[in-house]
Write a structure and sequence with these properties.
Layout (H helix, E strand, L loop, with lengths): L4 E5 L4 H12 L3 E6 L6 H5 L3 E4 L5 H15 L4 E4 L14 H29 L2 E6 L12 H21 L4 E8 L6 H13 L5 H14 L8 H13 L6 E4 L1 H12 L2 H12 L3
Parallel strand pairs: 1-2, 1-4, 2-3, 4-5, 5-6, 6-7
The structure holds NADP nicotinamide-adenine-dinucleotide phosphate.
């Protein structure tokens, strides 16, 4: 059987980097894509290919997929991982920034999926892995736009799974909990930049404190746990529809499922400050 070909977006850091390296180790031909090409040298050193990729730029996405098709003739696995957390009170965040958050976390993912689907449909095989979050099911103050994008990824991926099932293509949703990457710091910086000196400054400070606490090794997992779940999904004969990792993520999702909205609001308020 020929080596399977994978494209991993957001491979310059965190979950994407760990996933690219894990898939390389498991014998995939791996293309890592990101804007910071120099940050993907580790992938190149282990035999991966690296591509400059901006998921907000249609030409960049088309060029990346065209390169892979020219070199390999196929994309078997697309890991839509590129993303960031745009934090700040809804009242404070400019709508242009909200649009950017959707461009990266939702439209980039959808466009790349469009680009790889014709080949997958022709071969009647392939796997689309969409990195959502427990934040695709839970919510936080000052997180409206991030959660809006991840709730969108959940709905999009569920619809797509049933749409592509007759074509032999799998769609897998990954729901990470707290993972130690650059995501946390970027989200904190955004919250401070948008709401650090507005009517929401107190909530921004609480969010930053909570996120700083969560970012330590005791509460946040290594990105390798997500890479392992992704590798398991793309090598399974019949992957699960969702993988929530680490186990603390499963617990949070169970609580959300169990509790009525007001009760879960109470949990959120305890963690992030209610007023
Ligand atoms: N860390 C967590 O706790 C956590 C939890 C749940 C879900 N997630 C999700 O996991 C995914 C990966 O995040 P991470 O935690 O690994 O964060 P990270 O360390 O900040 O990595 C994010 C990656 O996304 C890429 N990216 C951002 N904007 C991009 C753009 N316009 N075009 C192409 N690539 C872009 C970055 O590359 P360049 O900047 O070089 O382009 C980087 O490689 C995200 O979708 C995130 O929402 C993370």
């Amino acid at each position: 059987m020929p080596q399977r070909v994978a494209l991993v977006t957001g491979a310059s850091s965190g979950i994407g980097e760990a996933t690219a390296l894990e898939l390389l180790q498991r014998g995939f031909v791996v293309y890592g894509g990101a804007r910071r090409v120099e940050r993907m040298q580790g992938i190149a050193d282990r035999g991966g290919r690296i591509l400059e990729l901006d998921v907000t730029d249609d030409d960049s996405m088309r060029a990346a997929v065209d390169t892979i098709l020219a070199e390999q003739g196929r994309v078997d696995v697309l890991v839509n991982n590129a993303g960031y957390g745009s934090y700040g009170a809804l009242e404070d965040v400019p709508i242009d920034e909200a649009r950017r958050q959707f461009e990266v976390n939702v439209f980039g993912l959808a466009r790349l999926t469009q680009l790889v689907l014709p080949g997958m449909r022709e071969r009647r095989s392939g796997t689309i892995v969409n990195i959502s979050s427990i934040g695709g099911k839970i919510y936080e103050p000052l997180g409206s736009w991030y959660h809006a994008t991840k709730f969108a990824v959940e709905g999009l991926s569920d619809s797509l799974r049933v749409e592509l099932q007759p074509h032999g293509i799998d769609v897998v949703i990954i729901e990470p909990g707290a993972i130690r990457t650059e995501w946390n710091g970027i989200s904190r910086d955004g919250a401070v930049a948008q709401s650090g000196s507005t009517a929401y400054a107190g909530q921004a400070q609480t969010l930053v404190r909570t996120y700083e606490t969560v970012d330590g090794p005791r509460l946040a997992a290594d990105p390798q746990v997500v890479a392992d779940a992704i590798a398991k999904a793309v090598t399974a004969r019949r992957p699960r529809t969702r993988y929530a990792v680490p186990s603390s993520a499963k617990l949070v999702l169970f609580l959300r499922w169990l509790l009525p909205d007001r009760a879960f609001d109470g949990v959120v308020a305890r963690v992030f400050g209610g007023s």
